[in-house]
Amino acid sequence: MTSYLFLDPDSVPAEWADRVVPMAMVPLTEAESGQLLSDEPVTPDRLMPDADLMRLVARGLSAEVIARRLDLAPRSVYRRLARLRDAFGVSSTAELAAELAARGFGAGDLADESTGATP
Known about the structure:
Largest sheet: none
CATH topology of the domain at 47-119: Arc Repressor Mutant, subunit A
Number of helices: 5
Number of strands: 0
Radius of gyration: 17 Å
CATH architecture of the domain at 47-119: Orthogonal Bundle
Strand content: under 5%
């Protein structure tokens, strides 16, 4: 089981710095809060199954490297990338990578991503 501790980014101890997961605080509208606090089940975001793929795209990895990392067929990666480009309203995978990186998806991995090597 993984536990999380929420800290101000400036107060993270040095020994934990390599495990920091970027987070965002989003103020909710009253309607959004009501929906989340209701007894109705919350449906998972349709993009969450692609979270690992989004992190790798944000780091600039090619579809072929991503396919190897995620143990997927390259064609599956291309289909998922097309769906993500549509979801984020971008026309190229380079634009998608920039958008995802700006949203913090690529942070935290110390692997040599240019070659696809793992730590």
